Amino acid sequence: MESAFDSLKQVIFSLQPLSEVDWEAFLLIWKPFSAKRKEILTVAGAKEKYLYFVVEGVQRVYYFDDQQREATTVFTYAPSFGGVIDALLLQQPSRYSYETLTSSTFLRASYHDLQLLMQSRPPIESFVRQGITGALSGVLERLVELQCFSAEERFRCLLQRSPHILQLVPHKYLANYLGMDATNFSKLINKVRME
């Protein structure tokens, strides 16, 4: 698990270096955790208890409504943070579910431990705020893509942002994420490969 902590440190220090004392305090709140394929880590309607750091595997956050419609909103994979962040920080029931698509290993920190650390260590609170701001920026960018771009433009943006995603995530989930049916998604893959 030492390499998992090294990976966590690399991600954090690339965004905002911490003092050795702050890093050691931050490190103490993270515990190893693993989950099987297709395991729901956060159930819609429940509070998010953990912030996850993905070490291995692929996960998704999705919304499921009372008309049986599903919308995949986010994919997470190593090395990145995961979970339903708004439900975690607001400590309100989640509107979304967080599910593993493959067997996954994580480091995870409880809301309680993270909150205490943010209150007592301003550089850690600043790092968390910076991470949330980056995530919000990504959400706003994605909203523009969904509202203004064609299906092909959305597909190309996804490949530009995450060129490896076609190998990581089952295509039915990618199609759902892009707001298109699986048949059109397959046509786009074939079109882009031939160019």
TrEMBL record:
Sorted alphabetically, which Gene3D superfamilies does this protein's record hold?
Jelly Rolls
Q: Which CDD domains match?
A: CAP_ED
Q: Which InterPro entries match?
A: cNMP-bd_dom, cNMP-bd_dom_sf, RmlC-like_jellyroll
Family annotation (Pfam families): cNMP_binding
Instruction: Name the domain of life this protein comes from.
Output: Bacteria
Signal peptide annotation: none
Stretches assigned to the Cyclic nucleotide-binding domain: 14-133
Which SMART domains does its entry note? cNMP
Q: What is this protein called?
A: Transcriptional regulator, Crp/Fnr family
State the organism of origin: Runella slithyformis (strain ATCC 29530 / DSM 19594 / LMG 11500 / NCIMB 11436 / LSU 4)
Instruction: State the taxonomy lineage.
Output: Bacteria, Pseudomonadati, Bacteroidota, Cytophagia, Cytophagales
